[in-house]
Amino acid sequence: MDILNQVGVGRLTRCLKAYNLPVSMADPRLANLPSAKLLTVDRLLDIMKVDKKNSGNEKKIVLLSRIGDTYEQRATVVADATIAKILSDAATVISGVPIHSPVKMVTPGSKSISNRALVLAALGRGTCRLKNLLHSDDTQVMMAALLELKGAQFEWEDAGETLIVHGGEGSLSVPPKDKEIYLGNAGTAARFLTTVCALVQKSPKDEAETTIITGNARMKQRPIGPLVTALTANGSKIAYMETEGCLPLSIHPNGLQGGLVQLAASISSQYVSSVLLCAPYAAKPVTLELIGGQVISQPYIDMTIAMMKSFGIEVTRRVDKETGKLLDIYDIPKGCYVNPPEYSIESDASSATYPLAIAAITGTTCTIQSIGSSSLQGDARFAKDVLEPMGCIVTQTATETTVQGPPIGQLKALPHVDMEVMTDAFLTATVLGAVASGTTKITGIANQRVKECNRIRAMIDELAKFGVATNELDDGLEVFGTPISHLKQGVTVHCYDDHRVAMAFSVLAAVVPKTVMDEKRCVEKTWPNWWDDLNNKIGLDTQGVELAGPTDSVSTTGPSSAKEAASIVLIGMRGSGKTFIGELAASALEWNCIDADVYFEIKFKTDVRQFVHDNGWSAFREAETNLLKELLTEKPYGHVISLGGGVVETPAARDLLKEYSRKRGPVVHIVRNIDEVVEYLGIEGSRPAYGESITAVFERREPWFRECCSHRFINHVEAFADGKFVIDPTVTKRGIREEVSRFFGHITGLTPNLAPNLAWGRHSYFLSLTYPDITPALPRIEELSVGVDALEVRVDLLRDPKAGKQDSPIPSPAYVADQIAALRRVTSLPIVYTVRTRSQGGAFPDDAQNEACSLLDLALRMGTEYIDVEISLPHTWITDMNSRKGCSQIIASWHDWSGDMKWNGSDVQAKYDIADQLGDIIKIVGKANSIQDNFDLQQFVTRMNSRPNAKPFLAINMGTEGQLSRVLNTTFTPVSHPLLPSRAAPGQLTFSQIQQALHLIGQIPSKRFFLFGTPISHSLSPTLHNTAFQALGLPHTYELLETKEIDDRIRATIAAPDFGGASVTIPHKLDIIAALDRLSPAAKAMGAVNTIVPVQSGDGSGRILLGDNTDWLGIRGSISARIAPGLIHSALVIGAGGTARAAIYALSNLHARTIYLYNRTRGRAVELIKAFPNIKIHLIDQLGEWPRDASGDALPPNVIVSTVPASETTMTNDDQKLHFPAELYAYRDGPAIVIDMAYKPVETPLLKLAKDTAQNWETAQGVEVLLQQGYAQFELWNQRRCPQGAISRVVWAEYRRRVASERFGFNFSYILSPTRPLLQLFCPFVMRLARGQGSRAVVRKHPVLRLLSSTVVRAKEQQTSSNSDVSSPPPPLHNGSRWRSFLQILGRTTLVSVLGSAGVFYYITQKERHPGQQLPHDPEKKTIVILGSGWGATSLLKTLDTTDYNVVVISPKNYFLFTPLLPSVAVGTLSPKSILQPTRYLTRHKKRAVTVIEAEAKEVDPINKTVTFEDDSEIKGAVSHTTIPYDYCVYAVGAEVQTFGIPGVQEKACFMKELTDAESLLGTGIETAAFPGQNPSEIDRLLHIVVVGGGPTGVEVSEIHDFLEDDLKSWYPELAGRVRISLVEALPSVLPMFSKQLIDYTESTFKESKIDVLTKTMVKEVKDGSVILQMPDKSITEVPCGMVVWAGGNKGRKITQDLMANFPEVQNNKRGLTVDDHLRMAGADGIFAIGDCTSTSYAPTAQVASQQGAYLARVFAQLAKKGNLEKRLISLSQTISTASGEEKAQIANDIESAKSQISKVKIRPFHYSHQGSLAYIGSDKAIADLPFANGNIASGGVATYLFWRSAYLSTLFSLRNRVLVANDWIITKIFGRDLSRD
Ligand SMILES: Cc1cc2nc3c(=O)[nH]c(=O)nc-3n(C[C@H](O)[C@H](O)[C@H](O)COP(=O)(O)OP(=O)(O)OC[C@H]3O[C@@H](n4cnc5c(N)ncnc54)[C@H](O)[C@@H]3O)c2cc1C
Questions:
Q1: Catalytic one among 59, 131, 441, 499?
Q2: What is the pLDDT of residue 1305?
Q3: Which of 219, 351, 1132, 1166 has the fewest Cβ atoms surrounding its Cβ within 10 A?
Q4: What is the rounded distance in angstroms from the CA atom of residue 870 to the CA atom of residue 877?
Q5: Sign of the torsion formed by the C-alpha atoms of 775, 778, 783 and 789
Q6: Where are the strands (E) in 561-637, listed by range?
Q7: Beta 1813-1816 vs 1822-1828: how paired, if at all?
Q8: Which residue from 1512, 1531, 1736, 1741 has its CB within 8 A of the most atoms of ligand 1, so it is best to mutate?
Q9: Where is region (Disordered) located (predicted)?
Q10: Rounded to the nearest 5°, which phi and psi values hold at 1316?
């Protein structure tokens, strides 16, 4: 009102606040009052009318003219508009020309200068009058602190306009004891005062020992470390009281020592200013040296020095005498500042930009006094550097700046301005750019992303509301100027609580009518009087605005940035996955994750269990609550905090959580099925035990969790389908990572998951899911949701099968939550959540309002994006819902079923107004009785949409007559799908029908899309896009236009009105640019265009052609589908062409921390690096050699993108081609992906190498990238989600068809599907060949094998890809003609496959039978002696390249025994020979002859490196004992059966270890029992088999049961039914390595088969005819039995114990040999040990042994390589001495190269990759526990049995064995088991 000045208002406000009085209606003390919920300003004015102090409409208010004096001697009458302006939260500027032009004004003082001036004057001598001091919180705390330190005295003059400072001449005192200097969040004050406090000298009067400065929670996170380090190094004593590097600080009063001060100034210039300001008061003159790299914000340092000069101290900056360059060294003399009598504080130059910009935009004149060319502030250059080039006349004197704007609408765009020196002013420049003619590019402002909000993003988003287009750049933005007349009026600008956003948009508001700024108070930070000054000094009227709705929280913009960044708290039962989800969420949000347990451990230096043990539960709970308090205060932003499950046990902690969830941030309850929790907790033991049942704890805590949380996240490990949980990974296609990212992105508001097509002028749709149980439809959701923007869950139609009454109309919240969670696992589409009541056309009871509300509340908690709320619900409840909804949106709906509501009547208007008040989206549904009703509806819609700030409006008519309204409706039209059980409402159409209708009525004209380039005839793009158009029912076409250059045909095509867009490929990607109007930032960065998009020009002048590039999106999509952006630590790009550019751009966008680039031609790589000056790229000279980090560790990449043609690459050493070494895949610690951009061959060398060497690496082919970039292209052209599944199926099928027909000349893909199972069953070898595990050379050479191999590769691809998004085979065809053609195809393909299989079979058998020539023994080579021929040894032999070694195998068995199938031999299912493979069959196929000796090793001498062995066969020759030397010995002798010394076991039990054991088992006892005259009890004894050991071997022996079931009945009918099997196990359960589910399953299967399982039972003795057992209750029982089968465990062999005895100190583990990470035997040289004979952390399994064997083969290959290089080095070193001249130089080069290669040979440690556990449990059932993603898939049953069989079949080492085993299985099935025995 221009009555009390700004200073007075500021002081008064602070005073009221200090007395805890509210100063706005938003103050929580008012806003939280229940009656305030519906209080509006108008309502308040109404209430004031009746106050007797007022006279009706005339409101009387006491006004102050200054503090202490009233404006009038009575209360002044104040206009309603003025009161409303003050009370409203939002403000609007009345657009027009400033009436006070030419304006002359002073803007508020600069904050930086104010703070410096306060310190200088306080430390100075004499009195100084500070004029124009900024009155803000910052200056206030600075003054308070200086007073506290007794450093100065202050007085006010001129009604607070002038501050008089009486300087203290540097004399400072320690504040009184217990008095801390509190600085709030004032950063500048904290930094300046740290050094000021260091100046304090101890005085005897001081009671306190130290000065303590502290701040609020945020301040306690802000860094101060570099300053404290510099001061302590200089002799000050400063201690951190809490967190290292942050406030609070305790500073000893030692004074500043002076001399050399070294300070790191790369973080903040305020540290430098702090030292400079105080330096004159040090004991010695100070030399300040700035270290640590680039000094930041030099202008602020210069400002400090200039101000010090004004106060009498001159600082000298040193200069390099030789170069004349300024150095970062400053000399500050000792002295005392002399206060000038008056010091005028310069206006804030950033603030000055707003009035100057108003002059510029309105064509008026403005002069800002006290900002001129001599200004110390960078922003003072705004007028000259920005406004002048934009067409303003700028006059600048030393102290004043005047701007005269051009006539309105004639501002010119700035082609480019670097605003690095005036970053805060970029917002002002941006709004001017928005109305200038042309494009304004602003750079150098990257830091603005981390200010009060992300200012660049904020400007982009808010300008978009006006219709102004922008492009975000890495360090700035481009603004496409738009004529003022084209700008949208009535926009509400969200200010993000940022003063600069509000003031910048006020400038735009001067020319765009009805612009509203939603948070007007945010300007208080730097210009508290902004709105008044606009009015009074500039002459633009401002008004208060009340935002729509009873609470201002109804907005489409989501929560403010501060709220968005509030930390998330996770609660839930222990074992519910809080930490797991927390880590995923933190990685998705790029936040930090804190596990409260870990935090606890760090803080209390003990773990929780120990703490509870030592101090008891109540002490723990108290500590836990305190810690919670601390975490919530200390980590208020940017953290995901995962709390312990029991935190809710105390009321205090619950209160804290409730308070937090209500006011500050999300508290998310992680919900997991209690059964899963129980199972999980069964194995986890790091927390104290509950002491009560988990279920009881669960029941107690669940209500507390619900009460404390604001959100719920369902973390079901398994998917939910058919009303129960199932383990089906194909259903749960979307990874948990994606869902976590969606959920947390949405609830924090950082990436709200809203439908982009809700934007103005576009059509949006949702699909109504009308299922009683959605889960059966989950596999089809993708198909169902093609084209739509969201999915509607009709909660009222859900029927909970567990609800007792099947058709109860109210589903339970738990059921609904599970349904939503299940849906989330398959789609990221936003969900519209609807509980439609009967009266509104739904199925929910009208009288169950509470239940409806609680279900709607659930929607909010689950982060559902859109919630349909009927406006018939209580408005207070809806209002409350609005206040909690965060980024979710409310659809306020009204349905009229009667048909009475008329669209041109008053009723509908009333409903609209209510819905407008309550929702973000308005939905009104009527009923059409005639087509006219649709026209009336349209008129109503048009009228409502033309209102300012109109909200999205969904208006349709039900019934067939109303279908037209559904076609014309633009917002969220509900659609159906033919596959749905029913339509949600009469007249509902499908998405495709609506598109067709829109096309027919001319709303979607058909368009033509093209591919430009050559050669393009093989392109898959037409398939891709035409499939998409068809799937969406769009009338467009995609065609090829092949030209050699950009000719007239192309020019005519892109100019045609029906041109929809084009893809551009080689050779036009660069040349096309000239034909386009504009380029996207991506296209600019890559210097190439691959997509043309016609867009509307920003100035509305028509269509322009935008060049974009989606190549990078394809790469980004393929990477991010596998690795979260935050997890890319380093990435390698191979190649330096256009695609490499795209790869670099994509990786930079994914925040890859390091990018390596490799190209054979170095020069091109260097050029590419130059093209990305802002991205740090390391050039790599050698593939596989990685730069090292600071700690010396190499950083191998976890992402590789190769852009070179696959035909030019190889896995083997070949000089002509680019060689990929295995070291490329050195990274093994986590997820990794390699992409080969080549389309052909199907498996390129790079991908093949990955599959062969590194299991953690995923691979992606070029076709996948093509698809991904195609999806992006489609979405750019159509602004609609691409039907990815449909496209990828068709494109992959087409790709395979083409690959096959190119190779074989016919469509081979036809035979794919039918032959796959055939091949899998009968030819696992081929499968393995296809997986790259077979003899690749063989496959390469032979066309038939190649053919089959490629078929299987494709089969595998289809299999894998059906799990991922990118591909699945087309669905089977069902109708008649298709069926016939299917039969034809089947016939042909069966023929081809039978012939093919026969050919392959013949070839392989012949190859195996006729091994070729081998290299002879070579004395020059090293000798490897392998002991054993079991799993470990055979796997080694199989993989070992024998070229470089002589190999000797010594084993008492000259064969390999396939142990997993041994139990099948024991029961006669398989014949013994079927599972044996003679070792020579393998060794005869090696390159160099391998000596196989059938003998038992008796001694290994590790000192002399010899092995002594003995022939122990029955027939012995003259020599049967000998010793041979070795260079390397591979010790793989396995283990013996462990009997634990139990009496009788060794002698009387049958083992299950060797073939002889199995052979001796069969039939034992049965024939004896069948012996005539046997008495019944003896028969029972003989037929009782006791199996000891509940591991897989023992369990598999239970296959005996099959024998008894299947065969005994037939052949021994008299004994059938009398045989009994007991399985004895000492542990609490059988199969401890399997999951609980599978254990239960096995036990129940055994139960059904009548196999007794005796757990916790121990064998004490085995006697003839019985076994003595100790039962669980410790009682001893003698159990009669005919046989004891012992499968009890392993122990080391004697030879192993002897070997260990050589190294008693290191070899002391009784389980076996101790080995290191590289499998070297500890203590010995040259001995490697693998398999069961070792004691490692791995289980003694075939899997481990065979992986170890294969690993050793790779180790030997590396050792050989190194040995050969070393030999070469020696020979080169010898020849160099005799060489001369060029030859010498060449040899020197070779020596260097050999050395470098040697250094590259690295042997990586062994890494075990668990492939899962399998066991056969009898009755044609098996169980499997297989690793999947980050967890396990557990399955059991008949299907698993088939899997078990096929897995074992494919694992058998030779085709011969496979044929034999498959044959035995078939024979057994047909004829039963073989019962004969010797
Ligand atoms: C019945 C049964 C079923 C099994 N099922 C599975 C399963 O399903 N999955 C699984 O992963 N694991 C299974 N295993 C375990 C698996 O067989 C072993 O872990 C694996 O065999 C260990 O391999 P290895 O090379 O260390 O020893 P072995 O395979 O036992 O080989 C040791 C070799 O050393 C030879 N040898 C012994 N003494 C000497 C000597 N003094 N001098 C020279 N050579 C010697 C032996 O003749 C033999 O050739 C099963 C084991 C059994 C017994």
A1: 499
A2: 42
A3: 1166
A4: 11
A5: positive
A6: 568-571, 592-595
A7: antiparallel
A8: 1741
A9: 1355-1374
A10: -55, -55
Cα-to-centroid distance, 1534 and ligand 1 (Å): 5
1590, two tokens: 């509940």
pLDDT tens track for 1458-1471: 988 888 888 788 88
Is the pLDDT at 17 greater than 80? The verdict is no
DSSP character for 521? G
Cβ-Cβ contacts under 8 Å for 333 (sequence gap 6 or more): 280, 285, 313, 314
Provide the pLDDT for residue 306. 93
Cβ atoms 884, 556 nearer than 8 A: no
The token duo for 1360 is: 């894998």
**Residue 764 Cα to chain centre, angstroms:** 28
SS3 of 70, please? strand
Ligand 1 atom nearest the C-alpha of 1734 is 26
| Radius of gyration of the chain, Cα coordinates, nearest whole angstrom | 40
Give the distance, in angstroms, between the CA of residue 695 and the centroid of all CA atoms in the same chain: 33
* Strand order, beta sheet including 1822-1828: 1813-1816, 1822-1828, 1831-1837
CA distance linking residue 862 with residue 866, whole number of Å? 11
Residues 1169-1202 pLDDT 10s:
988 887 888 999 888 888 887 677 778 999 999 9
Strand-pair category, 365-369 with 1658-1663: unpaired
Tokens, residue 187: 């950063």
Spatial CB neighbours of 1297, under 8 Å, sequence gap ≥ 6: 1307, 1308, 1309
CA 1243 to mean position of chain CA atoms: 28
Q: What is the pLDDT of residue 734?
A: 58
Strand order, beta sheet including 639-642: 592-595, 639-642, 568-571, 667-671, 711-714
By most ligand atoms within 8 Å of CB, the mutation choice from 1732, 1746, 1825, 1841 for ligand 1 is 1732
**Per-residue model confidence as pLDDT tens digits over 1050-1098:** 999 999 999 999 999 989 999 999 999 888 888 888 889 999 999 876 5
Contact (Cβ atoms closer than 8 angstroms) between residue 468 and residue 436: no
Q: Is beta strand 1218-1219 parallel, antiparallel or unpaired with respect to 1209-1210? A: parallel
Evaluate if residue 305 carries a pLDDT over 90: yes
Burial of residue 507, with CB atoms counted within 10 A of its CB: 0-12 exposed, 13-18 middle, 19 or more buried: buried
Tens of pLDDT, residues 871-909: 999 888 898 888 888 889 999 999 998 888 899 988 899
Token pair for residue 206?
A: 């001081």
Residue 834 DSSP SS3:
strand
Task: Please indicate whether residue 452 is annotated as part of the active site.
Answer: yes
Closest C-alpha among 1248, 1213, 1254 to residue 1761: 1213
- Percentage of the chain with pLDDT > 90? 36
Task: Please give the full DSSP string across 1069-1108, using - where no structure is assigned.
Answer: TTGGGGG-SEE-HHHHHHT--SEEEEEE-TTSS-EEEEEE
In the chain, % of residues over pLDDT 70: 89
Which residue has 């269990």 as its token pair?
A: 609
The β-bridge partners of 127 are 166
Q: What is the C-alpha separation between 969 and 985, in angstroms, rounded?
A: 15
* Buried residues in 331-344 as b, exposed as e (16+ CB within 10 A): ebeebbbebbeebb
**Residue given tokens 């296209």 in the structure block:** 1083
Q: Judge whether 576 and 677 are in contact, CB under 8 Å.
A: yes
Token digits of residue 1031 = 């799937």
Phi, psi of 1157 (to 5 degrees): -130, 135
Catalytic residue (choose from 424, 789, 1243, 1557)? 424
Specify the pLDDT at position 266.
66
Q: What is the pLDDT of residues 1752-1802, one digit of tens each?
A: 999 999 899 888 888 888 888 888 878 887 888 888 888 888 888 888 888
Q: Which helix H or strand E contains 544, and what residues bound it?
A: strand 542-545
